[in-house]
Specification:
mainly alpha; ABC transporter involved in vitamin B12 uptake, BtuC
């Protein structure tokens, strides 16, 4: 079995014709470029020089203050949310060997959103940390509901059965969140999250959320080799002495950590965790030691693109980032379904 795993590694290396170091550098440069574009774009007229002064000097002006206090935390939040959701999607796809796995499609973001709505209704003055914990609990409940419904029929899990269960649970939990908003007259507050935008992101929000996303990504990097073996074949993983139950439990907790923290900041967001891992695997292969860091970079860049488009499409009015992501993600999802999940493998 070890020989089989080595063969898979060689096959992956042959498919990855570009050295990973070059790919990683390209991903970092793309992220830096998109960060600069995102910081300079929007309803307010801001130049790259103003952005540079805000980041590197102690100069003060109305424009620089706007950059430091409004636009900078917003884009930093977008970077970490995009990275967290993309990595969570990659882990889900590798762990379940389901090409359609995505935190949004499988009920995690809807569960976190419903828990957030309930927390706002019952504990309106609670802290950002408490709301994030509630989101994590809600994400876990959403995932367990989907997995439970998907396993009711004999024959085990199938990608399409899980997706159908995810759609049903997502609609149910979304309706609960809307119902709570109407019942407690907090629809406006709930909608701020369900719209899936970065408006109103502050440094205090980031201090609460970002450490959890970084922790989740670091743990996933540490377990990337085990995830690679698990994504190939569970029997191979057992034959190599891997404690699959423990690894799956830790990875599931990592997913909850990443999704709960992301939803607490940005709200209900789907498709990033579906699209980015497929695109990344087409570039770097199926070794998750390469997939995880590239998903973090690509997810961060994609989130910056979506947020920037949302701000410039109909400026000075803002289009929610979730709408931009959905417009891009839905055709991608249908394409993956049509190809049976093998379009980028």
């Amino acid at each position: 079995m070890e020989e089989g795993y080595s063969l898979n590694k060689e096959t992956t290396s042959e498919r990855r014709t570009i050295p990973f170091a070059f790919t990683l550098i390209a991903g970092i440069l793309l992220l830096i470029a998109m960060f600069g574009v995102a910081m300079a774009s929007g309803a307010a007229d801001i130049s790259l020089r103003d952005v540079w002064l805000a980041l590197t000097s102690t100069a003060t002006s109305d424009t620089i203050s706007l950059i430091r206090e409004i636009r900078l935390p917003r884009e930093v939040g977008g970077i970490f949310v995009g990275a967290g959701l993309a990595v969570a999607g990659a882990i889900m796809q590798g762990m379940t060997r389901n090409p359609l796995a995505d935190p949004g499609l499988l009920g995690l973001t809807a569960g976190a959103n419903a828990a957030l709505a309930l927390t706002i209704a019952l504990l309106p003055s609670t802290s950002s940390f408490s709301r994030m914990v509630a989101c994590m609990i809600g994400a876990a409940v959403g995932a367990l509901l989907v997995l439970g419904i998907g396993s009711l029929k004999r024959g085990g899990f199938s990608p399409f059965r899980i997706v159908l269960a995810g759609v049903a649970v997502h609609s149910f939990l979304y309706a609960i969140a809307e119902g709570i908003g109407l019942m407690f007259k907090i629809s406006k507050d709930v909608s701020m999250w369900t719209a899936g935008g970065l408006v109103g992101t502050t440094w205090s929000h980031l201090y609460t959320v970002v450490p959890f996303i970084i922790t989740g990504i670091l743990i996933s990097l540490f377990l990337s080799r085990q995830l690679t073996i698990l994504s190939l074949n569970e029997e191979v993983a057992v034959g190599l002495g891997q404690k699959t139950t423990q690894v799956k439990a830790i990875l599931f907790l990592v997913i909850i950590l990443l999704v709960g923290a992301s939803v607490a900041l940005i709200g209900n967001m789907a498709f990033i965790g579906l699209m980015i891992p497929h695109i990344v695997r087409a570039i770097v292969g199926t070794d998750y030691r390469f997939v995880i860091p590239m998903c973090a970079l690509a997810g961060a860049s994609f989130m910056l693109i979506a947020d920037t488009l949302g701000r410039v499409i109909n400026a000075p009015y803002e289009t929610p980032a979730v709408a931009v992501v959905t417009i891009l993600g839905l055709p991608f999802f249908l394409f993956i379904v049509r190809k049976g999940g093998r379009a980028f493998t």
